[in-house]
Request: fold
Amino acid sequence: MSNKILVYIETLEGLPAEHSLELLGKAGDLAKKAGLDVGAILVGYEVKSIAQELIYRGASEVHVVDDPRLGSYNLLPYTSAVVDVIKKTEPEIVLFSATVIGRELAPRVAARLKTGITADCTDVDIGDWVDPGTGRKYEKILYQIRPTFGGEIMAAIVTPQRRPQMATVRPGLFPIPPRDESRTGKVVEWSVNIPESEQSLVEVIEVKREKRKVDLKSARVIVSGGRGCGAKGFELLRELASVLNGEIGASRAAVDAGWIPYDHQIGLTGQTVKPDVYIAVGISGAVQHVVGMKDSKIVIAINKDPEAPIFRIADYGIVGDLFVVVPKLTERLKKKS
Ligand SMILES: Cc1cc2nc3c(=O)[nH]c(=O)nc-3n(C[C@H](O)[C@H](O)[C@H](O)COP(=O)(O)OP(=O)(O)OC[C@H]3O[C@@H](n4cnc5c(N)ncnc54)[C@H](O)[C@@H]3O)c2cc1C
Reply:
């Protein structure tokens, strides 16, 4: 095995996707900790020009497959291309973003390489690991951390014997590394074997990008509502959010009740957010919700139950009826602005 952590880079309109850069930054931290090199896998057509940007963002090597057969994302040819690059470069670790593409591509790559993979990690770390059964020590082990048992516990999953160690990691968890134009690195171009049958199996006719209706990931303020709000409560939250220039989030209970679309759901099966201010209104603070907002800078909870678990992670708490507290808060903020 070579001493590498590779990150699969998704591209968007000729640029590396932001979530891929986030992951590249995190991989850089792991590489530093374990004395590894960090690199990128870049697959597509006319993508070579992106390689330099990846070096500015921290990659010390970029493995490029620039091939007209890979013009649009297509699962099987992309799987073959990525597998081929991994076989040629023999990395210790390969990371994908847990996006629509990463979630379908990474497990196929892992299956062909006969290695393990953990899907949808909320964190990754690296270090030694001792097998409790045999006492054998393994080095440079990727800790693939994710909630399990419906979010009740955080599990650290390891792949001690197979290589590469692989994981998909949720977008929106890590900062984008700063751009440093003084950085240098090498770009390696590969030609890969893509069986004819894989190219013709699926024909991509058109690619349409649907923009998310709500942008919770880059919101600085999120006012989030739960079961305690009811449909009426969400009207109050919208007013509060508008005064604060914020977005509306929700717990799954509120989404399930039909008060707000799924796009707004935060948590284990929703989005992961980290705004400057997160106001949780009528939300109890179930682990499955908290896992999606715990990295917010300031958490303010409004709940009529002083024992609600959300108060355990809140920086500020208001115990009271949201139908009294929220209008007062909105009024006060309106006067200030
Ligand atoms: C596999 C799995 C995945 C899940 N994924 C998610 C997820 O992604 N996101 C998510 O949120 N949940 C998720 N859940 C559900 C989660 O376990 C909780 O059921 C959910 O978060 C509860 O939502 P809630 O806090 O709005 O409702 P509740 O737990 O019912 O809490 C409502 C709160 O409102 C307060 N309240 C009521 N009336 C008022 C009032 N007038 N004024 C002030 N406070 C009031 C109550 O005191 C209470 O604390 C998942 C569960 C499972 C098993």
